[in-house]
Amino acid sequence: MSDDTRVERQGDQANQDLRPLPARLVDVLLGLGELLGENDRALLEAIYRRGLSAADLARAIRTRPRTIQNRLRRLTCRVNSPIFRLVAGRCDALPPLRREVGERIVLRGESQRTVAAQLGVSLHRVRQELTGLRALGAMARRDGQPS
Questions:
Q1: How many domains does the chain fold into?
Q2: Domain contains 22
Q3: What's the domain range around 87?
Q4: pLDDT of 117-139, one tens digit each?
């Protein structure tokens, strides 16, 4: 079996697993795309605005369709999380370090280690700030407040 045939078969399976989203959810995702990092924004636009399939996109960037599908799933889960809504909506009310950590890790998807190194703080401190953000998101959700 050639590599092209294998990619086609994987692509067919990956496209079956990608369920179409309601139009209003697509609009929300694309609207929040401005808050995301460049690669995440490009992925959302390729799939939802231009209508590319996971197989087509995988072929274009020379990766497996399942990789695209998994990345898209993680991205949509992140965007739909309470902590994302908290950081996106109430960023100005947060302390400066917590705001910066939230913007870079939660919104843009940067790694904790990268953010710690670039901000000149310990990885432990970054994790503490994320824990604080998660607690705020959980409290807002429990109280029924829009995050």
A1: 2
A2: yes
A3: 82-142
A4: 999 999 999 999 999 999 988 88
Same domain, 39 and 72: yes
CA distances from 106 to 8, 24, 34, 67, 68 (A): 34, 22, 13, 21, 20
Instruction: Give residue for tokens 């029924």.
Output: 144
For residue 110, give both structure tokens.
């940067």
Is 147 a member of any domain? no
Same domain, 90 and 59: no
pLDDT tens by residue, 28-72: 777 777 788 888 888 888 888 888 899 999 999 899 999 999 998
Q: What are phi and psi of 50, to 5 degrees?
A: -90, -15
Whether 91 and 49 share a structural domain: no
pTM of this structure = 0.69
Residue-wise DSSP of 90-139: SGGGS-HHHHHHIIIIIIT---HHHHHHHHT--HHHHHHHHHHHHHHHHH
Instruction: From 74, 69, 90, 77, select the one nearest 133 (Cα to Cα).
Output: 90
